[in-house]
Amino acid sequence: MKKYLIKIIILTLLINILPISFVAAASELSYQANIIAEEIKTPWNYQVISKLYQVNFNNPEDLKGNTYTVEIPYEAINNNYKTALYFDKNKNVWRPLPTKDNPLTKKVKIQVPFASVRLAVFANSGILTVGQASWYKYKGGLFAASPDFAKGSILRVYNLANGKFVDVTVNDYGPNRTLHPDRVVDLDKIAFNKIASSRDGTIKIRIEVIKAVGQNLSADLVVATEPVINSKSAIIFSEKDGLVLWEKNSKQVSPLASLTKLVAAKVFLDTRPTLNKVVAYSKQDEDYNYQYCKPGESAKLKVSDGETMKIEDLLYSALVGSANNAVESLVRVSGLSREEFISKMNENVKLWGATSTSFVEPTGLSKDNVSSPYDYAIIIKEVYNNPLIKKISTTASYSFSTINKKIKHTLTNTNKLLQYNKLNIIGSKTGYLEEAGYCLMTRVGTKNGNLIIVNFNSNSKANSFSDNEKLISYGERLLKK
What we know:
Elements: H1 2-16, E1 17-24, E2 29-36, E3 46-48, E4 52-57, E5 68-73, E6 80-88, E7 93-97, E8 99-102, E9 107-112, E10 116-128, E11 130-136, E12 143-145, E13 154-159, E14 165-172, E15 183-188, H2 189-192, E16 202-211, E17 221-222, E18 233-238, E19 243-248, E20 254-255, H3 260-269, E21 278-280, H4 283-289, E22 308-310, H5 311-319, H6 324-333, H7 338-352, E23 370-371, H8 373-383, H9 387-393, E24 397-401, E25 408-412, E26 425-433, E27 437-446, E28 449-458, H10 461-480
Helix pairs in contact: 3-7, 4-6, 5-6
């Protein structure tokens, strides 16, 4: 019986620790890379794509403080940014090591500065590094358009068919991932011709990141099973079934600022207006705003008393430019009294089930306009039954000229996430008030249904956008489960 038990123990040890020996070519130092059968605690926004390895150099005294190359395989085909991370148990974080990916062999080369280290290979689903590249004419140089890296970033682009590479600087945004999901970058024609003929049209490439502007790809990754956000309250809401997929204080009631405007737009459109009808602006419209703020503090459409425009232009001004006076203009021309209009806003949201929401005015300038992320997600599900609200609220920019004075106005959407069309945003609204902090709603289309992401009361615009983007990514992951 004892012999039988000993055999089982030995067999278990062999299964749990499987040695794989390599030779580090650059140093000629031999090392052991052993698979460790242990659960890997991962950051939520990274996917582990290899086994966990314990790497030990056979003669550690020969390292002499230098860095040497280790080669580790990964398992699944993955076209995203890959990095090798080693686990720091003392800090409970994964720390990155310099990594070069070879998608043809499904192996990475890792610069290891330690005689002994435990590591694994991870992929970042937010950055595509292997796929297609096309060309276009833009600035005429060694440039690229990227949806993943900001302007000024430097990328090394390899043609996988011939091994040629070119270093390019990102100077443009693109390609559109909703149209070209496997397109990594678009290269300026001059850069493309360094590694291929323009007759090829598109080529299979991989990229290495030489410099990432605005992204710290060498930052430590905290082990966390879900996003850590700055906003005081937030929700990830599944539109098709009304399920709360994730929340943080989602029923906490607070001012919702300009997110109010979507409810006002719905009430106005329910009056079935003629969008190309020409109406005149009244200074009284902005005077209502000044009950809640000083002149100069309110986002407004810069038009004068009596200046004329189409109703459609006012709608775009209200939802794209978040112009408070344009909202009051819509209220005035709606056919309802101002009191009736605001009452209709409150009646609607209660009817929809948003019982903690109330409005005292239609723009969001009052701190007494309140809601919660949970209530607002319910509201958005109803508001976006109107396709015109979807169209207008996701318009990145809009231009029009007033009818009688021919003055041109160009509006830029206050949601900067719309500039990054790798996100399939089908609904959008920002808000800010001193008492509300920075608020944001995005509605995102996915293969598994629409997500409504709402975050209230962030301490900065940048954190509000960052929180929302994290929650979009996390929500998409939850829907896939």
